[in-house]
Design a protein that fits this description.
The chain has 101 residues and is an alpha+beta fold. Helices cover 17% and strands 25% of the residues. The protein is globular and about 35 Å long. The strands form 2 sheets. Strands 1-2-3-4-7 form a 5-stranded mixed beta sheet, with no helix packed on it. The protein has a two-stranded antiparallel sheet with strand order 5-6. The chain starts with 7 loop residues before the first strand and ends with a helix. The chain contains 2 helices and 7 strands; from the N terminus they run E-E-E-E-E-E-H-E-H.
Length: 101
């Protein structure tokens, strides 16, 4: 039998709600150290690096930022996004730096 943790979907993948971004925004953490973020964070410019979803697309931009801070409690080394290239080095540090701006 498979025993799931409270937010675990299956096979070590956990869902984390991100209220404040787009409606229904959810991040997914894998037990292998990857954090998958939909639209709440974007990485479309190599010059600017990680960026929060622009306020005009958020249901509540301040809540989006606060919700994303929950992700820092997970041990991940890779970030992937709906928009932009993945981050494969120091991903958690880079997300933390974005949220501390």
């Amino acid at each position: 039998d498979v025993v799931l943790l409270p937010n675990e979907l299956l096979y070590g993948i956990s869902a984390i709600a991100i209220p404040g971004a787009t409606p229904g925004e959810t991040a997914f953490f894998t037990s292998t150290g990857t954090m998958v973020i939909g639209d709440a964070v974007i990485n479309v410019s190599t010059e600017r690096g990680l960026e929060l979803l622009p306020d005009k697309y958020c249901t509540d931009a301040a809540q989006n930022r606060a919700s994303l801070k929950k992700l820092l409690t997970f041990d991940f080394h890779t970030l992937t996004f709906a928009h932009g290239a993945p981050v494969t080095t120091r991903a958690k540090d880079k997300l933390q730096a974005l949220l501390n701006r």
